[in-house]
Amino acid sequence: MTTRAAVWLLAGGLWGAASALAQDIPLARNSIRVELPPNAPVSVISMDSDQSRVTARGAGIQLDLDMSLTLRNSSPSRIRGITLRVISQEAVPGGKGSVTKPSLNVGQGETFTVPIQLQLMRPTQLAAGPLVQVDLDGVLFQDLSFYGSDKLNSRRYLTACEMEAERDREYFKRVLTAAGKEGLKKEMLESLARQSELPALDVRVRPGGGPAVASAALPPEHETQFAFLQFPDSPVEPLQGWARIALNEARAPQIEVRNKSSKPVRYVEFGWVVSDPAGRQYMAGSVPSSGSPLDVLLPGSRATVRQDSALKFSANGQPVNIQKMTGFINQVEFSDGKVWVPNRQSLENPLLRKVLAPSAEEQRLTTIYRRKGLDALVAELSKF
Amino acid sequence: MKHPDEAALALHAGGDLAFFARWRMERHLTRCERCREEVTAFCDLREMLADLSEPPDLPWRQMAAEMRANIRLGLAAGECVRAGDRPLREHPLFTGARAAVAMAGMAALLVTGMMLERPAPSLSAEGLVVRHTANGIEESDGSQAFRLMNRGAQNVTYSVGGRSVSARYVDSDDGVTINRVYAE
To answer: By residue range, what is the domain housing residue B37?
Structure first.
C-alpha cells in the first residue's frame, strides 16, 4: 500500500470513528425493566419508551430515558396515589429516585399514566442488560389503606399528600358554597399570584454533617439557633434547635421536640425557613427525623430530630448567607399510621404565605383553573 | 441505445458538464446522429441568445480578454518570484512527515469539534450531592449522574427534604407528578 493510500484510509477511519461516537442511538427496549408484584393492585397496560436515546457526551455517554407507563387499577378500591421506584443499575452506584403521582382519583378498571424522564451520565460504555429498574413502592387507596413494599416511606408521604389534598379541597368547596364562583375565582387568582412570587432558592444537599473538604481556609462555622412558629393544634411542640452555619452552608440541623399529644409519634418533619443578611426569606427545605422512623416518641416525652447532612444555599447564582433560621412542624406521623399536617389557618401565617409553596392539590386545582377555567374547576371539585 | 436527457445535452452544449460526464457524452455523440443534432441546435441557440443579450455599451469580450491577460500576468509574476526553475510540486503531496502533521491536525480538529459539539456537563467534584438543575433534579458523584427530568414542565416546585430533593409539577393531563432523588 502506498503512503498516500494509507493516509486516506486513516483519515476515513478517523472520520468514521468520530461520526459513530457523535451519533444518537435508540435505547434498547431491554434496557428498562418494569417489575410489579403478581398481586399488585395495578397492572402495566403499555410502556412507551420510543424516544429514549444513548448519546456520546465528551468522554462519557448519556442515556436519556423518556418513558410513559400506562397502568390500570385492577383493585376494587379507588387509588389516590402511587409511588414507583426508579433504580439505576449502572450510573451513580445505588442511584435511586422515585416518581409519585398524588391526588389521583382512579376507579377500578380505569387507567392512568406515569411519566418517567430519566437521564444517566456515565464515564464509559454501557454494560449489557437492564440499566434501569422500575418497581412499585406503594399505592394509597381512598380509605388510606396502603399496598406496597414501602422502602421509600411512600405510605407516609402519600398519606400526607392526601391529607393536604382533602384539607385544600374542603377549603375550596367551603369557599364555593360561601362566596360562590366569584369567591372561588378570587382564591385561585390569589394562589396563582402567590405561587409566581415565591422566592427561588437553589439548595445543594450533601450527606454527612461536616464540611466537604478539610482545609484551614474554610470559613469558620458557628451554631445558630432556630426560632419557631408554633401551631396550636400541632401534636408535637418544638423546644429548641440549632445548626452549624458557615456562610451559606448549614450543617447537621437538630431540633428537640416534645410530644404533647395523647398518642405515640414515630415521625416528625420540620419546615425550615432561612433569612439572609438583607432580610430576604426563603424556604430552605424540611428536616425529617432522619430517614427512618423515630424510636416511638411517647406522649409527654422528648426527643431530638437530627439530620446528618449539609445544605448549601444560593439564589440567582449568588450564595445566600444564613443570618436567621425559622422552623415549624410540617408533618407528624403517629405510630398507628395516621398523619397530621398543619391546617389552613396555621398556613395563613404571613411568613409562610411568603415562602411556602402550596400543596400538590392546590397547585393542581389552580392549574386546572388556569388551563380550563372556573367551570372545569368546579366540576373537578365535585368529583371528590 | 440509451440517450442522455435534454438537460445534459444543453449543459454539454454550454461546456458545463463535469469531466467524466463530458467524456461519456462525447463517446455517445460519436455514435448518435440524433443527439449530435440536438447539441448543435443548443449551440446555435446559445450563440443567438448571446448576440441578443449582449448590451451594446458594455465591451464584455474586451473585458474578458483583459481579465485573462491579468491572470496570465499574475502567474508570470509568480514564476519570477519563485526561486530557480522548480516545478509547482517538487515532491509528492504526502510524504511521511507531512502526512503525520496533517493527520495530527485532523485528529485534533475532530476531537476539539466533538468536545465543543457535545460538551460533557460539568459535574460536582465534591462527592455525592443532590440538587436541582435547570430541567430536573440530580444525584451526582464525580463524572456520574442520575437525573429525573421535568422537561417541558412549567411552574415546577423544587424542595429539599433530608437527603433528597424533589421536583413537583402539574403534567399535561392535569395530574401532579413528583420526582425525587436520594443521596444514599
So the answer is: 1-88
